[in-house]
Amino acid sequence: MSELYTSSRLKVLRSCVYKHHLRYTLNIRGPETSVMRFGTLAHAALEAYFKAWQGLALTARNGEHDDRLAAALAVIDTVADKIERAKLRVLIFGYHLKWGAEPWEILAVEIQFEYELDGYRIGGKIDAIVRDLTDGSVWVLEHKSTSMDTSPGSSYWARLAVDTQVSIYIDGATMLGHEIVGCIYDVLQRPGHERKLATPEDKRKYKLGKGCKICGGNLQGKQGTMRVGDRACAVCRATGWRLDENGVPEAPALYSNQRETDETADEYEMRVADEVADAPDEFFRRVKVVRLDGEIDRLRLGLIDTIRMSEVLAAARLAPPNPDSCAAFGSMCSYFPICAGQASADDEIRFPRSAQAHPELVAVS
Known about the structure:
The protein is an alpha/beta fold. It contains ten helices and eight strands. Helix 3 packs antiparallel against helix 4, helix 4 packs antiparallel against helix 5 and helix 5 packs parallel to helix 8. The chain starts with a strand and ends in a 26-residue tail after the last helix.
């Protein structure tokens, strides 16, 4: 049986032929990067969310029987890293508030497809297929989490006009028997907030503080210093320091941009949640991508040409690396140590082999 080509495989092939050789010919699994791990976890949470949505009656949405959020959070709660877990919780809560009331019927979640195009096997797995109950239109839904610029007009959206994955998924959903209008590209912006850490001792700077003008700090009322009959200063409330408008003593303290302790995971989550709540449209964006007949034909031809190019290179035993693609999406390629001579591809502990080229797909033969 001929080899299977997925959108992921084609993307790797276009970016670096040598990476394609390692990944899909030798079946070497590169170490998981933090970016990859976050994307996988966000995807798993959204899968649980939409599977719960699939069984949710429209009348129960946002009511006591709506368990979509609980299903997603149950996935996130398994994450060991507290800060990573906090980021994911904020995103899922925000996603639910932003999109949870959509008038959708969920027709399928994580549905696999395979079809033939000019003699080549094309396959993949669609995140979801949804029907808009307002007009009956059916859409492929594709989730993405990213740290890239997704502001309106950015190159992130412009590239969708020629995106292979969108075209393959529209074709795939059509082959499954759905009359597809297009693809809803559903993007979650990964919070870029760093955890605030304690200021090193040698870097700390303190305010002088402002003493109470009435008692000058002489009536602070500290334990062991007052005698029966003494009265603490009522103006500073026995603190010895002037009180600000909120009644907080203006005692010596670190400047506001410095910290005595590390920010806790709960504090971090609250801070990021506040920023997401203030600007939800910056963290949750969607666009609808449609393909006209002429566009689909042109993109299918480009897809076939890419596969044929790979066959020519494989026949000539050529797999040149592409140094221009070593760094992408904020991290180095997981195979970079092999290319840089820092590690061996024969190291199966660091670079384990996979039983199949497409482990994300079930029973591909």
